[in-house]
Amino acid sequence: ADDPTLVLHAPENLHKWEERVVEVVTGYTWEYNPKTDDYDRVEVNDGVDEETRMALLLQAPSRISKDPKLVKQMVITEPYVLEQVNTNIRNYEDIAITAVKKAGDTLRFVPEELRTEKLCKYAVANNGWSIRDVPEKLVDENICLSAVTVNGDTLRDIPEKYKTEKVCRQAVLTSGHMLGHVPLKLRSRDMCIDAMASGMKNATKEIPTQFKTPDFYNDVVHKNYKALSAVPEDMITSEMCRFAVKANPSMISYVPEQYQSIDLWVNVVRLNPSLLRRAPLNMVNDISNAVAKK
Length: 294
Description:
With 294 residues, the protein is mostly helical. Helices cover 44% and strands 4% of the residues. The protein has a two-stranded antiparallel sheet. Strand 1 (28-33) and strand 2 form a beta hairpin.
């Protein structure tokens, strides 16, 4: 037929009807590979546009729901089809695992009584926010650690009893602004350094006062030179400035005027000549002459 989508309306006893449905709605077929003794997924060029294919994809599971192998093939292409899969189908957990590995948030389509520890671990490993859909009895430090490793912002959804030093430290490594969700008793100097190095200004206000010293900010800048932009001006030192501009001369923009010496500018311009235009006018000639001598 000129229209491959007509297969959806063909008799279900048609030879290889189910296999053909999968081809049409997913755009792929499976071919045996004798070298691997397995099946390879091969794209089908049947002329069906993506919009039509997606519409068909949402209709097909109810018609091929008796064959777990075919349903799994469809879930591989579009994991959100899981919402329509009959939970009584054979190997349902395997099909659900296939879905959550590709889209962790599809865990919400699985009835809570069927959300196993294995399934939840795969879901959270793909999408940290899936921690919201993990049954309370399955939540522990390990799965919380997995969630914040994928997305530090999920720390806001972690139960207080699982906000351990390990979980919180991992969260602020990538989402420093989450320091505000870390219990005060766990906010160590090292954790605050990690938080500010990744969260910049968003983390600064959550740092305990006793840590806010030039030495602390120096350690932050040495961990991430970009953090110089978030250091309070009265805490900035000349050494901090030298380190930051050496790492990236554009950081000269965040160096306080009192530390913008000719020597510092010479080093900046040698690394990036185009930055001479940002130098103070009263220094330009001296900087240019110094750069030209070497």
